[in-house]
Amino acid sequence: MATMGKETKLDPVWDDMDRTLGQLFTMGFDGTTVTPQIRQLIQQHHIGSILLTAKNLKSAEQTTNLIYELQKTAYDAGHPVPLAIGLDQENGGVNSLFDEIYIRQYPSAMGIAATGSKELAFEVAKATAEEVAACGINLIMGPCLDVLTNARNQPLGVRTTGDNPQEVSDYGIAFMKGYKEAGVATLGKHFPSYGNLEFLGSALDVPIITESLEQLSLNALIPFRNAINHGLDSMMVGGCAMSSAGLNVMHACLSEQVVDGLLRSDLKFDGVVISECLEMEALSHNIGVGGGTVMAVNAGCDLVLLCRSFSFQQDAIRGLKSGIDSAMISKTRIRNSLRRVLTMKSKCTSWDKALNPPGINLLSTLQPLHTALSTKAYNSSITVVRDKNQFVPLSNILDLEEELLLLTPLVKPLAASAAARAVVESMEAHSPGPAAWERSASVMSGERVFREFGRSLARQRNGRVLHTSYTANGVRPVHEKLIDRASAVIVLTADANRNIYQQGFTKHVAMICNMSYSSGGEKKEKPLIVVACSSPYDFALDQSISTYICTYDFTETALNSLVKVLYGEITPSGALPGSISQSQKLHPTRQHWLVEAYNEERDANALDSLMKAVVDDSPPNQHSELSCASSNAVTLHHPEVLEAHFVVRNSTTHSLYGFCSTYFFKTTGTGVIGALFVDPNRRKLSIGRSLHNRAIRTLLQREGAKRFQLGSRLPSIFLGIPTGHGVERRRLRGWFANMGWNTALSRPVCSMVARNLSTWAPPEGMAKSLESAGARFDLVYGWDYSGPILDHIRTSNRQGLSEVYKLALNDPTACGIIRATRPEDGALVGTVVLYNMQSHIAEYMPGMRDLNEATGGISSPVISPAVGDYSTLLQGLILLGMRQIKQQGCTACILDYMDGDGNFDGLSAMGFDVLHTFDECSADSVTWSMVPPS
């Protein structure tokens, strides 16, 4: 609200009417230096406010110099007060001032709203205003207070925070307070709202607001009303038409009913009112600039905006003087507007401030802090709206050597303001040849950003990134070939709701990806990630796009954060703003199933049936880990292992829909999920999620819990996430990563098998080479040997080791321990467990029964860290184990738990093949300290 009342006596200097009228204009010009035209306007016509746009500004240093020259020109011409220098600096895609070194890029208004933080909104607004103020700007053309009541087809897009009036209001006020904190004047736009305009098509037809005043009051006017109550300095009134019952306005900014009535009287605004640019073609053609200026001032506008045309600007000045001379405009009206303008200037500038801009010196000081703020804001804004199949991060779906395809559109730049858009439209209407946006450098800038994004993706991986653009020509043969060649596809869109070709192209690509076939001829979905890099409304409600990400602008900084999300370097935390986020909560719903404790007597048979259903659902020619598992192998009954298993079941039919086993190993403080599977006919219904959450909550309550592991050595059903199933492996990794497991740091483990032991012989020369291991080997049985062996295995902290060895030591008739000792001092340097099908350990090794032949097992090798030649000693232990198993009449041998990233050459030479492979994952308790209830 203005602090200088209408009755405040004005300084006599303002008795000069020409000087007074000059304060009622804000004007722009072409050029990066003070041109003769703008100099004349300042010196001869006393113009008091200047609007700078991107066409005036090349760098922070040049901007500082330009603004200083403008102010010095005004000072030397005898202006009583400095010029108000305004600038559109909304961030996102709307920045008039750009400087790679000194001016930071921040997310658009909607991008900031996606972070969910009003504090961050304040800090970003303050930082933005500090930067432009350092260059001499004292009026920032923001915040944007429009409510997107019709979000799908509006040019404002991400320039406002969304479709919820209270949310738009809250963020608008946060932006406004940030600007004020930095000492610049604020401007709300675009009153009474550009959030639901109807466009008739012709450049001579202005967009129309069809909502009634009552409808506007209940929705679109809320942010404007609240901003006024919090001290908004100025307001831009749009040039749109209004047509509803009782309201028929050709241009809002020329309407006394809108400015004096709605804004001044109803909303009690006594700050500065700025008109939309009177150069917009519809207004200048229908009314004329001179007449339009008179109408704007009579309507209640204090500043009349004219963007660039010197002839139009002269016409406006003549028109205002003529209006005064003919008494069409009262001098009281002029004086009231002058008071408001002077009040605003008194808050944001002085001659000392205007003639001493801090410039580069201050910007250099601000740069480190503002760079960190920019990164934080962008990292917090990226929104993964949907990721049904866990395609993000890319490591879930792409092996290092596979190719990734990036498809990006050719896009128009986003106009900085309605005023700038009017200028562009005017240029297009009066200039032959390509449209203005096609001639400008900014579209090339957009292409360069996408190219650099492709390079950033490529730098993160070994496999190639294929990158090409798409246009309104649709999916071409070259696109089809690249899609067929790539293992995954990323499509970027930019306002696809208004650029329909992008929508059609993306849907076509999605159809191709859904109809993809593997090299073996099997149908499989090719991973597709769609990224809306401007308006999030492109595919927000389109469930056929299963992975959908929003960045809210396509600046280089935004796409850098997108790269981090795609590669799992940051966890995306953004959320769609406004009511659209509420609709998203319905898709997909997450049901919370009743999870019950597993009852062996009640559920054992149903568990066997569930396991069979999972096995039967396995792809052809792929062996399921559950193929020979049974409910008997689930329960350990071990004194040092706490067990708790869970089911989701149908209490009427007693069928099991899902099962999860947990074990807590007291010796290492490790909580383990040993198995988690769901009826194939009931997947994607949140059964697995409900089981997982219950299991984690149980493990968190175990006393002494230090770490958590996915995959259990005992029982040895799943050693981790199964990794031998291609697409299924990626799906599972993505699912568990989404649940909090650190799949990026998973450890490959496997089980191996050697068959045909009856004819097996060690590789030639191996026995002799083992002599170089410098160890003696022997085979011992029973608890009498437990002391040194248990001390030795404590050199490894792997889960389940102690339990396996204790089972073996307590079962001397069916288990033994092969030891390796140093000859010189008898120190134990290596051990491995040996067992057969009659041992207690074998009950928990379903792979032994799966072979349908006499099988022995070798388990849990532990090599002392002090041993220099690990592989040679390991081969020696396994070789002796195989000889022993062969002597017992076995025809096959299982290695039940081996490091999957080791050198298999030696083991393959001994006759072993990989049977099952897994990713053993871990996490800490902090990951799930806030697990929601099932």
Automatic annotation (TrEMBL):
Family matches, as Pfam families: Acetyltransf_1, Glyco_hydro_3
Coiled-coil region(s): none
InterPro entries from the UniProt entry: Acyl_CoA_acyltransferase (IPR016181), GH (IPR017853), Glyco_hydro_3_C_sf (IPR036881), Glyco_hydro_3_N (IPR001764), Glyco_hydro_3_N_sf (IPR036962), GNAT_dom (IPR000182), NagZ_Beta-hexosaminidase (IPR050226)
One annotated GO biological process: carbohydrate metabolic process
Keyword Aminoacyl-tRNA synthetase in record: no
Domain N-acetyltransferase: 645-710
Alphabetic keyword roster: Glycoprotein, Glycosidase, Hydrolase
Presence of the UniProt keyword Hydrolase in the record: yes
Single GO MF annotation: hydrolase activity, hydrolyzing O-glycosyl compounds
Superkingdom to which the source organism belongs: Eukaryota
Domain Glycoside hydrolase family 3 N-terminal intervals: 18-343
PANTHER family: BETA-HEXOSAMINIDASE-RELATED, PUTATIVE (AFU_ORTHOLOGUE AFUA_8G04060)-RELATED
Family membership noted in the UniProt record: Belongs to the glycosyl hydrolase 3 family.
Name of the protein described by the UniProt record: Glycoside hydrolase
Organism: Tothia fuscella
